[in-house]
Amino acid sequence: MKCRKVNYVIQIEQLKIGNASCLGLKVDLKPAPLLLIIGEKGFLSCGFLNVEVAEILGVAAAVVTGVKTFEDVLNGEVKSLTTRAKEMGVKAGQKGREAMSKLA
Q1: Which CATH number is 10-103 given?
Q2: Which pTM was predicted?
Q3: For 38-49, what is each residue's pLDDT tens digit?
């Protein structure tokens, strides 16, 4: 099998959400980046990740769409979320930063 060289940019950043420290992960994919902000209790992601699978796994997760940066994720509105995230106080329509403060 022949492999071709592919250049992907992966960015890992420590993010401060309120008093909590979270991990931001960005993978520059085409046509849009994969963005994930991971807290101790759950995560906030772009639309690349499947909230239905997160539901099956019983994790606290929320999704925002149409984002390209960590700041976009934190300023975007939650479009979908898991039951576990709802139990933690996350709501659809809530800003990502507010949702992440509950998942951090």
Answers
A1: 3.30.1980.10
A2: 0.90
A3: 999 999 999 999
